[in-house]
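> call design_seq(struct)
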């Protein structure tokens, strides 16, 4: 009883002492402490931290942290007991603990405590959907605490790189964060430097590079071969003329080293920053190359991130994507690919090389021109052909076009253009995915000489793949979009 009365008296004294401070700050409206950037402060709405008595305690301990750190540490330990699972209390405690860390005494133990508190705050917020909007800032603090705790390359390996998750958070100032003197003790470790600096993402996946990009004349320069090959391009080096050559989907890009000129299918372009060679690596301007390869490039300045993705501005109101996915679904799954991707798998240098070899083996396709020739021959199917023959050929139009894209012979726009007449003819002949896909599989069986009544054949295996995907799509509704059968096929403009 005496302890309760004593605690009550202390609380009343603190409330009275700091009443003027609270009133001055708009009646208990929470605000960031002086030692952090305001954009790294959030309010966990509904937390007990912002009740008048508790907020008065927070302001008191903040003041102690700036004037009497030893007393602040004692007060902080008592304060956390008010709500060890409360997100707001844990977050406010973490900010005060960070201030104590900055004094440079007992940093190891303080960093461990800070890590624990930040993890508690972040994990607590994840359990509450109402806190989704504050998770990025809590993630920043969790990352900061983990880095402060690390003191060796080995410890760095077990530090989560939460900056990967922060890519979509525009307020995360990545440059300011990693350049902070807080992390001077980590700059000699490769794991840390891999987190820090300019980073490239392709299709929202971090692109791992063995050398860092360089900024020259405000242009990002980097060894282009890995990225160009990832996008399906073929990269060649002309040693005689000291020129890099990049070929993809009908674009022949030539960039002489040291020159401000670049040539695309013979047309000349001026570069802001000439290509150069350093340590045996040829550095080319990233944006110029990517945009010439029909990619969209986005620069996130605060995060020092470059995002590269397929330029989809041509799609407009087209509904061709579900037609392409539906016609490619079975063969993509059969070949251990990804049926949800145009190209039947995610983009990569390895996939592009594999597909080029495969379509050479399967279809004798060795060039961009061969893709068009093959597609046109499949579209020339006789109007009087059996439905299974029609479906077999029309499905393969979308498949060849998609493989042409994955191999670097076609642009995504050309996949849409080539698939459009096949989708129109498919819709004229059939009324659903079930009818058309089963006809396609019958066409495959006839072409392969398979008796459809036999068990354990390539036909029955593909039929089972279709049934599995179709049943899955009853809940997903992506691969087999039934609405397209009730609409006119809409091409691209």
């Amino acid at each position: 009883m005496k302890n309760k009365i004593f605690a009550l008296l202390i609380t009343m004294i603190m409330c009275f002492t700091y009443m003027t401070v609270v009133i001055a700050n708009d009646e208990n409206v929470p605000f960031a402490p002086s030692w952090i950037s305001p954009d790294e402060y959030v309010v966990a709405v509904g937390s007990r931290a912002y009740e008048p008595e508790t907020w008065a305690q927070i302001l008191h301990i903040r003041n102690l942290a700036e004037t009497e750190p030893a007393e602040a540490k004692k007060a902080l330990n008592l304060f956390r007991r008010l709500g060890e699972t409360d997100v707001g209390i844990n977050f406010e405690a973490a900010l005060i603990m960070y201030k104590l860390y900055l004094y440079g005494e007992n940093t190891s133990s303080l960093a461990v405590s800070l890590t624990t508190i930040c993890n508690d705050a972040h994990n607590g917020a994840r359990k509450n959907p109402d806190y989704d909007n504050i998770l990025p800032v809590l993630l920043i603090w969790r990352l900061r605490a983990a880095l402060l705790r690390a003191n060796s390359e080995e410890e760095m390996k077990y530090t989560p790189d939460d900056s990967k998750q922060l890519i979509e958070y525009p307020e995360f100032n990545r440059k300011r964060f990693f350049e902070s003197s807080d992390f001077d003790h980590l700059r000699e470790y490769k794991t840390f430097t891999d987190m820090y600096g300019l980073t490239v993402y392709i299709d929202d996946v971090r692109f791992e590079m063995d050398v860092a990009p360089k900024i020259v004349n405000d242009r990002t320069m980097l060894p282009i071969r890995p990225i160009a090959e990832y996008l399906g391009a073929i990269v060649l080096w002309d040693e005689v003329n000291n020129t890099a050559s990049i070929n993809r989907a009908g674009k022949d890009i030539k960039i002489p080293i040291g020159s401000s000129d670049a040539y695309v299918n013979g047309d000349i372009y001026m570069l802001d920053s000439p290509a150069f060679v350093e340590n045996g690596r040829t550095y080319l301007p990233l944006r110029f190359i990517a945009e010439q390869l029909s990619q969209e490039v986005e620069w996130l300045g605060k995060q020092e991130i470059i995002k590269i993705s397929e330029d989809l501005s041509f799609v407009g109101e087209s509904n061709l994507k579900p037609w392409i996915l539906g016609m490619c679904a079975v063969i993509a799954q059969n070949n251990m690919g990804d049926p949800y991707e145009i190209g039947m798998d995610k983009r990569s240098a390895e996939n592009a090389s594999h597909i080029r070899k495969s379509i050479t083996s399967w279809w004798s396709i060795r060039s961009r021109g061969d893709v068009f020739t093959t597609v046109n021959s499949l579209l020339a199917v006789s109007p009087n052909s059996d439905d299974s023959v029609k479906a077999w050929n029309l499905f393969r139009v979308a498949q060849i076009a998609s493989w042409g894209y994955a191999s670097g012979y076609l642009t995504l726009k050309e996949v849409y253009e080539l698939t459009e007449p096949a989708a129109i003819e498919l819709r004229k002949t059939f009324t659903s995915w079930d009818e058309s896909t089963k006809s396609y599989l019958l066409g495959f069986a006839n072409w392969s000489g398979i008796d459809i009544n036999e068990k354990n054949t390539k036909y029955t295996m593909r039929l089972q793949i279709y049934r599995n995907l179709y049943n899955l799509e009853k809940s997903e509704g992506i691969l087999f979009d039934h609405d397209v059968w009730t609409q006119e096929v809409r091409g691209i403009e």
